[in-house]
Design a protein that fits this description.
- The protein has helices at residues 2-29, 48-51, 69-79, 81-89.
- With 113 residues, the chain is mainly α.
- The chain is rod-shaped and about 95 Å long.
- The model is unreliable at 108-113 (pLDDT under 50).
- The protein is built from 4 helices and no strands.
- It folds into 2 domains: 1-59, no CATH class; 60-113, no CATH class.
- Helix 3 packs across helix 4.
- It comes from Solemya pervernicosa gill symbiont.
- This is Cytochrome c-552/4 domain-containing protein.
- Keywords: Membrane, Transmembrane, Transmembrane helix.
- InterPro entries: Multihaem_cyt_sf (IPR036280).
- Residues 90-113 are annotated as: Disordered.
Length: 113
């Protein structure tokens, strides 16, 4: 009789411990930067920060103040020259409307036809 009790209580005790710890482990493993079960093991490529900014992008808050578009371009020429080259090659730097370059600080709704 005593041995039969062990066969019942030991598995129940193991279930009572292992099931909650399994749920805890799954929640813990989801605690990385991304979404999903393996988010702790996966680190995003730098470009993903711009594609899904709410999830990955962490802004550099060392720049404060409000700047005009030309000042932004001047700063970006030294920090990210590739972005400036792409902007200059696009229609934003010389729009067909002739109203001047479209900077980030200038709403684009004016230039839609």
């Amino acid at each position: 009789m005593r041995q039969r009790v062990r066969y019942i209580y030991i598995p129940l005790l193991l279930l009572a411990v292992l099931v909650p710890s399994g749920y805890y482990f799954v929640e813990w493993s989801k605690g990385g930067e991304g979404d999903g079960l393996y988010s702790r093991q996966w680190q995003p490529v730098e470009g993903f920060g711009y594609w899904h900014p709410d999830q990955f992008y962490q802004s550099v808050e060392s720049i404060s103040g409000e700047f005009e578009g030309r000042e932004c371009v001047t700063c970006h020429e030294s920090v990210t020259p590739g972005i400036v080259a792409d902007w200059r090659a696009s229609g934003h730097s010389q729009p067909a409307s002739g109203e001047g370059p479209i900077y980030c600080s200038r709403p684009q709704e004016k230039f839609r036809s």
